[in-house]
Amino acid sequence: MTTRDTQLEILENLTDLFNRIRTYYQPQMMAEFAEDGVTNSELEVIELIAADDFPNVTKLAEKLYITRGAVSKITKKLIEKKLIASFQRAENKKEIYFELTDRGLAINERHQALHERFLDEEHELFAQLSAAEVADVLTFLGKYNQHLDKKLREKLSGN
Predict the structure, then answer these.
(1) Which CATH number belongs to the domain containing residue 121 in this structure?
(2) The domain containing residue 124 runs over which residues?
């Protein structure tokens, strides 16, 4: 059982960790894609489109925890930049889906390669963790993600 002080310490450490991760890696990411004029939000959408067979505005909004309107704005910009294209399936003419263009695929490949480089940079630290430490961290993060996922879904549904 954790105390309120321990809970606060964990949350402060997580916040500090994610701020440091963002501060260290985001400038590298943005520098890599500056010439392409691709923003961090656009990279996230490209990555999700690449990972899903039939991504649409609703799926993307749910995965990013943002509104469908925000996703529509991002996808419109990506279409203008010729990084994604929209399409409809023969069995569902109502829904609009997205796919990466050749340019979008190339951006995603570079993005994934950058993630691989970042993983390589951190490998030495992670290699020092025991199996039990890894299991504990993953268990906690899984529980916390489920907790926040539930709260976010309630908030987005208006409950």
Answers:
(1) 1.10.10.10
(2) 33-128
89 backbone dihedrals φ, ψ, rounded to 5° = -90, 150
CB 88 within 8 A of CB 97: yes
**Over the range 65-98, which residues count as b (16 or more CB within 10 Å of their CB) and which as e?**
ebeeeebeebbebbeebebbeeeeeeeeeeeebb
What the block records as the tokens of 26 is 């985001």
Residues 23-77 pLDDT 10s? 999 999 999 999 999 999 999 999 999 999 999 999 999 999 899 999 999 999 9
Amino acid identity for residue 77 in this structure: K
Q: What is the pTM of this model?
A: 0.86
CA dihedral 91, 93, 95, 98 (to 10 degrees): 80
Strand partners, 99: 85
By C-alpha distance, which of 21, 70, 50 is closest to 110? 50
